[in-house]
Amino acid sequence: xxxxxxxxxxxxxxxxxxxxxxxxxxxxxxxxxxxxxxxxxxxxxxxxxxxxxxxxxxxxxxxxxxxxxxxxxxxxxxxxxxxxxxxxxxxxxxxxxxxxxxxxxxxxxxxxxxxxxxxxxxxxxxxxxxx
Length: 131
Fold this sequence. Notes:
The chain is an all-alpha fold and about 130 residues long. Helices cover about 70% and strands about 0% of the residues. GO terms for molecular function: glutathione transferase activity. This is Glutathione S-transferase theta 1a.
């Protein structure tokens, strides 16, 4: 089950989010498939792992929460809030943020919102490597 969730997340990122961040076109069909995989992964995260606990494994934060919240935040790079309409997962993310410290959490994720800056930096590095 865990491997499936990781595979779906990586697949979504490689096929849709990364090209979108880099400014490439992503077909509607690919995006729809990736969003469906993502929806299923979020359902699994909520129903099988979070359930009625404060955090994924117990009522205390763990490495599992930190790793999962990083994945949940990635789609923000293309302005996709995957927790919209998911109050249980949104509350979980807020608890993780509070436990880690809001300032640290924001600093760790601020570059996600700057996908254009990332795109420019990667293009500049590509040009340097070709010269």
